[in-house]
Design a protein that fits this description.
Elements lengths: L15 E9 L4 H11 L6 E7 L2 E5 L8 E4 L8 E11 L3 H14 L12 H11 L11 H36 L1
């Protein structure tokens, strides 16, 4: 009679640990000292990368192509390792993680890097969220966020005043010429 066709049984995905690695920018001792001071204020200037399945993924400025890159965990060549934060476990398989990173390679071109609004910490935050985890700790990103807020307020003020300033300059130029 009717044999029921069954789909091939896939092995269940074992939850995989995800770790955020935090670095002091560059290799100078000065940055470690600056971050030690800023840490008392709950912030700092950091590089971040996300480790999963034995690889660490991050983002950097690049004149062409993707800014997404991979390195050995806790071994980013451009920065000094500081600490790690356990982000929990993802139920994504290794293949699903690689596909997610590949999708993000397209979405994160190196030419779109911005120190305050689209940096390695923002990338790490987005990757963790896509892996079904929460956001990365606020202290890794709030200095850039504060800088972005100041820059945003400055840009709004300049945009609002620019026509007035330009008109004022043109009016002054006419008065001088007359």
């Amino acid at each position: 009679m009717g044999a029921i066709a069954s789909a091939p049984h896939e092995a269940p995905v074992v939850p995989a640990p995800v770790v955020l690695h935090v670095y002091d920018l560059g290799h100078s001792g000065e940055m470690r000292t600056v971050n030690a001071v800023l840490q008392t204020l709950g912030t700092g200037a950091f590089h971040c990368g996300v480790e999963i399945y034995g690889r660490e993924w991050s983002f950097q400025a690049s004149p062409r192509g993707s800014g997404v890159f991979v390195c050995q965990p806790r071994r980013c060549p451009s920065h000094s390792y500081r600490t790690s934060v356990d982000m929990g476990c993802t139920r994504f398989s290794e293949q699903q993680v690689l596909q997610t990173v590949q999708d993000m390679r397209v979405e994160w071109p190196g030419t779109c890097y911005d120190l305050l609004t689209r940096n390695c910490c923002h990338y790490s935050d987005q990757l963790c969220r896509r892996l079904g985890l929460g956001p990365i700790p606020l202290w890794t990103m709030n200095l850039a966020g504060a800088g972005a807020a100041v820059k945003g307020a400055y840009d709004v003020a300049v945009d609002a005043l620019y026509p007035t300033l330009l008109t004022g300059c043109l009016g002054h130029t006419k008065a001088v010429r007359a």
